[in-house]
Amino acid sequence: MRTGSEPATARSALRARFWLSMWGLVWAIFGTAAFALVGRPGWAAACGVLWLVATIDMTMILRHIHQGPHYQPGRNIPPYQPPESGPPYPRPPRHRHP
Q: How far apart are the C-alpha atoms of 66 and 84, rounded to whole Å?
């Protein structure tokens, strides 16, 4: 059940994201170099764009790792308290068939 506190309590596997981003970065660099050497500028450009995206992703991941486990989105986003009791909506009525 959702409590409404997901933005404040959500966690991401940052180390796994880091290594997946590193893997993508290595392959994007390799692809850019390989396609540039064999004369495929379109594919080299596509791998270059992927290289840029992986670099930006790696930068954001490292930023979040350096911020530590108590990172909060900002002062203008209030924390949500879990509900007091029960679901936030009424249950639908049960129909009995004769």
A: 35
CA distance 10 to 2: 12
Which of 10, 3, 5 lies closest to 69, judged by CA?
A: 10
For the whole model, what pTM was predicted?
0.59
* Separation between Cα atoms, residue 11 and residue 1, nearest integer Å: 17
Q: Which residue has the tokens 């290289």?
A: 51
Sign of the CA dihedral running 14, 19, 22, 23? negative
Task: Please write the tens of the pLDDT for every residue from 17-54.
Answer: 999 999 999 999 999 999 999 999 999 999 999 999 99
